[in-house]
Amino acid sequence: MSKFKKKKSGDLPAVSTASLPDIVFMLLFFFMTVTVMKDSDLMVDNVMPYATEVQKLDKKDPVMYIYAGKPTSKYSKKFGTSDKVQINDKFVSPSEIKDFVLEYQSGLRQELQDRFITALKVDQDTNMGIITDVKEELRDANALKINYITKEGDALQNVK
Amino acid sequence: MAKRSAPEVNAGSMADIAFLLLIFFLVTTTIETNQGISTKLPPPQPPTDAPPPIKDKNVFIVLVNQNDELLVEEERMDIKDLREAALEFLDNGGDGSCSYCNGQKDPESSDNPNKAVISLRNNRETSYKTYIAVQNELIAAYDELRERERKRLYPNEVPYLEMDAEYNAAKTDDSRKDELQPKIEKLQALYPRKLSEAEPKKD
């Protein structure tokens, strides 16, 4: 009978987008868990060299980052093209590093203080001179544990 | 009158909101590359202390010049041969006191792994990537020897590098750490990492 007759229509039903939010939320949660907030804006070129004998830094370890390299094209007009050291959001001279380290260390809880690690994120084309100065400062500040952040890969491709 | 059902909330814009959040997180966050070569700097020393005397044959000198060229034990060397040369030097066991060494027992090279020191000196103009490559090769020599001893002493254990990574990870439970600690210390004692970095020359 006509009461139960199905409505006949020739055109295809629209694809349901009801699950789209779920998919996007899934992506969102994935990115929220695997990434961290940018803590500082990079003002230097920062391409890490390769190495194989790497150790992962633990997320719970207190890590202070020191960046070094040539200023990016945006900053090179103002700061020149020689190698610079960046901590937090500004360029510092190597002699100021000790103060930054001591300040960071004093803000840590007691049990974390001896696990303090300084991570050096240095561009691969930097000269060793400035790195030596940084290391000398860290030694003075008694921040002896350091980690040269690298990409994982054969180290010999650095020198090609 | 027919019972009217409550109108459904339109969820069509949900996807847009979620996309907005997603894009926000994509822009403000980075995937961290938190891995690298860990080293320890020597503690600051009072300048009056004279360094302990080390015999010349126990020191393996690696120089890197401003053109990123290597001079190892006064001979030019390609970086790909560095690991093998360092390995031979560390594993030499010249005085016969090292029972686990497989080296040449050359009396002109290092006495035993405990006395063997690798000295690395770079120029101020050396590039960082070469420095990292050299460091990597030297550390790889130590790790290779430790891994060899791991196979001999603890054949059922995971490879040395994984042991070390597991020991340093915060999520490893304490009982496993207690188990790993003596093994790692033992392996490190067999081949202690004595890598000294001299101050670069100013020229």
TrEMBL record, chain A:
**Where's it mainly located?**
membrane
Q: Which GO terms describe its molecular function?
A: transmembrane transporter activity
Q: Where on the tree of life does the source sit, at the highest rank?
A: Bacteria
Tell where it localizes. Cell membrane
Look up the signal peptide feature and give its range. none
A GO CC term assigned to this protein in UniProt: plasma membrane
The record, for InterPro entries, names: ExbD (IPR003400)
Q: Which residues cross the membrane?
A: 12-32
Membrane topology per the entry is:
Single-pass membrane protein; Single-pass type II membrane protein
A biological process (GO) annotation for this entry?
protein transport
- Sorted UniProt keywords: Cell membrane, Membrane, Protein transport, Transmembrane, Transmembrane helix, Transport
Instruction: State the Pfam families in the record.
Output: ExbD
Q: Does the keyword Cell membrane apply?
A: yes
Family recorded in the similarity comment:
Belongs to the ExbD/TolR family.
Can you name this protein? Biopolymer transport protein ExbD
Q: Which organism is it from?
A: Pustulibacterium marinum
UniProtKB/TrEMBL annotation, chain B:
* Membrane-related topology note: Single-pass membrane protein; Single-pass type II membrane protein
Keywords of this protein's UniProt record, alphabetized?
Cell membrane, Membrane, Protein transport, Transmembrane, Transmembrane helix, Transport
Give a Gene Ontology cellular component term annotated to this protein.
plasma membrane
For this protein, the record's Pfam families field holds: ExbD (PF02472)
- Give the Gene Ontology MF terms in alphabetical order: transmembrane transporter activity
The answer to whether keyword Transmembrane applies is: yes
Coarse class of the protein's main subcellular location: membrane
Q: Where in the cell is it found?
A: Cell membrane
Output the InterPro entries linked to this UniProt entry.
ExbD (IPR003400)
A GO BP entry: protein transport
In the record, the note on similarity to other proteins reads: Belongs to the ExbD/TolR family.
**How is this protein named in the record?**
Biopolymer transport protein ExbD
Q: Which organism is it from?
A: Pustulibacterium marinum
Its lineage opens with:
Bacteria, Pseudomonadati, Bacteroidota, Flavobacteriia, Flavobacteriales
